[in-house]
Amino acid sequence: MVNLIRSVNYSHHYAAMAATFCPSLPQHFKPSPIIKFPRSSFSFKVFSSQSSADETPTRVGFLGLGIMGSPMALNLIKAGCDVTVWNRTKSKCDPLIDLGAKYKPSPAEVAASCDVTFAMLADPESALVVACGEDGAASGMSPGKGYVDVSTVDGPTSKLISGQIKETGALFLEAPVSGSKKPAEDGQLIFLTAGDISLYEKVASYLDIMGKSRFYLGDVGNGAAMKLVVNMIMGSMMTSFAEGLLLSEKVGLDPSVVVEVISQGAISAPMFSLKGPSMVQSKYPTAFPLKHQQKDMRLALSLAESVSQSTPIAAAANELYKVAKSHGLSDSDFSAVIEALKVKSKD
Ligand SMILES: NC(=O)c1ccc[n+]([C@@H]2O[C@H](COP(=O)([O-])OP(=O)(O)OC[C@H]3O[C@@H](n4cnc5c(N)ncnc54)[C@H](OP(=O)(O)O)[C@@H]3O)[C@@H](O)[C@H]2O)c1
What region holds the 6-phosphogluconate dehydrogenase NADP-binding domain (predicted)? Predict the structure, then answer.
């Protein structure tokens, strides 16, 4: 029998955020005990069909129009949905407004004017402030509405947001995505959802506009955990790939040929074929910002820590992302982590 073991490991940092952004929480927010799920109650389902149209909410809000949020909202608009947008930097709303989106000046007003509101924010801090801060989405929520957070955050943050949204009588779904800028543009994302299944069913047709598949993973926190496991593996793969490219060059091989050889063998991966050629040219056009990959490594390591799982490869990879950040590469693509190894080898 396989158990999914989660523990809510609330750091002082999150406790402070919780007190600031969600003042209705008890001052001393206590960690929950470890929860174990027997496999029988840990279900996942993959769907590719459309949900029934009469269940589908009609007015859709979208908060956060960065690399991922903009093309996702754009796909909803292109599909004819009634979309209302908000972004901290208002100028990023303008291209979507030109294409027919409505605009509201705060997350609360978006949530109040929509049946369901999606949020695609950078990290736990921004997801929390947009959902639960002053003029946050929770202030505009009420029974009959739904909040779908598609940002990559940790389980404790997701549970905190869920609690605040559900206190208003609204429903909550966490739905981080696997896939990057191009899959977002092409409506080919993979949604890793957990939370209120009735909301999952209501928004299924929207998920199908923005993505190619969707998993329902049970209780809030399971979607976040799934996303962090996937990105932890991806982050380690990228650092290993970077080491291999640099080693090949040092011993006189052509790294472009290494990329080609890898693409034909058992360790081939779309990521290597996509990023390899530009990495060889020391170019890192941003699809997935390095700062977000390091955030995901940090959150994955914290998840591993909470269940005492050893993750030495991910821990080593995380150090390289931190070095890359310290060299000003936060906003470059995460493949720029190779530069951290170049700097190291010059020492
Ligand atoms: N890019 C990818 O390949 C990819 C793939 C899968 C998942 N993800 C995850 O998806 C999320 C978004 O990624 P992205 O690549 O779209 O990132 P991004 O381009 O950096 O966009 C981040 C968004 O968060 C907003 N934001 C940041 N701090 C904020 C704050 N304090 N208050 C309000 N809004 C704030 C930004 O607003 P401004 O415009 O005002 O800065 C922007 O809308 C992240 O959790 C990331 O890990 C990314």
Answer: 59-218
**By the 8 A CB rule, do 239 and 324 touch?**
no
Chunked mean pLDDT (size 10), the chain, 347 residues: 30 40 33 30 36 65 98 98 98 98 98 98 98 98 98 98 98 98 98 98 98 98 98 98 98 98 97 98 98 98 98 98 98 98 67
Identical fold for domains 4-218 and 225-346, yes or no, is no
Q: Is 181 a catalytic residue?
A: no
Q: List the Cα angle 77/78/84 in 5-degree steps.
A: 5
Record: fold of 225-346: N-(1-d-carboxylethyl)-l-norvaline Dehydrogenase; domain 2 (1.10.1040)
DSSP 17-49: HHHHH-TTS-SSPPPPPPEEE-GGG---EEE-S
Q: How many Å lie between the centroid of ligand 1 and the Cα of residue 93?
A: 14
Structural domain spans, the chain: 4-218, 225-346
CATH number assigned to the domain covering 4-218: 3.40.50.720
How far away, in angstroms, is 280 Cα from ligand 1 center? 27
Ligand 1 pocket (Cβ < 6 Å) reads 64-69, 87-89, 92, 120-123, 126, 129-130, 151-152, 177, 180-181, 287-289, 292
Residues 6+ apart with CB under 8 A from 232: 296, 297, 300, 301, 304, 311, 314
Dihedrals φ, ψ of 289, to 5°?
-55, 135
Q: Write out the DSSP string of 270-306.
A: HHHHHHHHHHHTT----SSBHHHHHHHHHHHHHHHHH
Candidate list 227, 291, 295, 325, residue with the active-site label: 227
Q: How far is the CA of 121 from the centre of ligand 1 (A)?
A: 4
| Closest to 334 measured CA to CA, from 204, 242, 265 | 242
